Amino acid sequence: MDSALLIAATLNSGTVLALAGLGLLINERAGVLNLGAEGTLLMAALAGFVTTLHTGSTTLGLLAGAGAGVGMALLLGVLIIYLQANSYATGLALSLLGGGLSAFLGVDYVQAKLPAATVWFWPGLSDIPWIGPALLRQHPMVYLTMALTAFLAYGLQRQRWGLVLRAVGESPASAHALGYPVRAIRLGATLAGGALCGLAGAYLSLVYTPLWVEGMVAGKGWIALALTTFATWRPVRVLVGAWLFGGVTMLQFYWQGQGLNLSPALLSMLPYLVTIVVLVLISSDAQWIRRNMPASLGQPFRPGH
């Protein structure tokens, strides 16, 4: 694997984490803590794979994954926003539900095969030496993720909907006093975040590794959750952080191609070791976390209280 292919593989790998991370960022900006991302990704990966297998359409598979993500998010939102269930227990239960249910429903699809994923060639540009193979031969979702990052970065800072979303996450009581439907806004943010997590799961099983295997998400939901904190709840940093983690994942294959004599098990551990190191570093400064995190994250809101 040369450097151009390493860059291309990094963008491909990072897209899964970026989509999931952006979805969780939207949740958390509204004050909703979603610990069910791992289960959501698994259910979406299965839904996308099964849909594409039976229809032959990757687009329909991605939409099915987004739909599965919305369904899981709706369950989470109703439980923690309207029924006031504990965010931590509910999120963990949702993650376990997604893992177990996807394994049960996906038994018959483990050996199935999908058609090759679409690669977007830019006319006249994709053949440019190094730049073309590295940057301009990606699946359209890679570029859509970049565009979505720019949209969220601008919207959260400059658009009314972004300011309202942030206000709900910072001070729901104040937003309610101004007449905003806090719980409806939180539910909308939860569903939007669930759709992005669903797209991430479907992208994983349709493009990144076009197959279905039980537990194939392999901790990416938890990494995406850590990524939002690592990025201090800023979309551009989520994207850059996703590429960083994606690059670390791809390094194991790059080093193996270079003949580096390291244990494959050690190389496979590398992305998770990096995640642990990052979490230790950001947790060492509690004041820094409190200054950046949404003030009402994980806190229930009851109108009239």
Structure description:
- With 305 residues, the chain is mainly α.
- The chain has helices at 3-29, 37-55, 58-82, 87-105, 131-135, 140-158, 160-170, 172-177, 182-208, 220-230, 235-257, 264-283, 286-292.
- The radius of gyration is 19 Å and the shape is globular.
- The relative contact order is 0.21.
- This is ABC transporter permease.
In short:
Helices cover 72% and strands 0% of the residues.
Using the coordinates above, name the CATH class. Answer: Mainly Alpha
Give the fraction of residues assigned to helices. Answer: over 70%
Under CATH, the topology can be stated as ABC transporter involved in vitamin B12 uptake, BtuC
Q: Give the terminus-to-terminus CA distance.
A: 59 Å
What kind of oligomer do you see? single chain
Beta-strand segment tally: 0
Instruction: Write the CATH homologous superfamily.
Output: ABC transporter involved in vitamin B12 uptake, BtuC
Q: Uncertain regions: pLDDT < 50 for 5+ in a row?
A: none
- The dominant shape is globular
For the CA atoms, what is the radius of gyration? 19 Å
Which structural class matches the secondary elements? mainly alpha
- Beta fraction: under 5%
How many domains make up the 3D coordinates?
Answer: 1
How many individual helices?
13
CATH architecture title? Orthogonal Bundle
Q: Roughly what is the average pLDDT, rounded to an integer?
A: 89
Largest sheet: none
Protein name: ABC transporter permease
Organism: Amphibiibacter pelophylacis
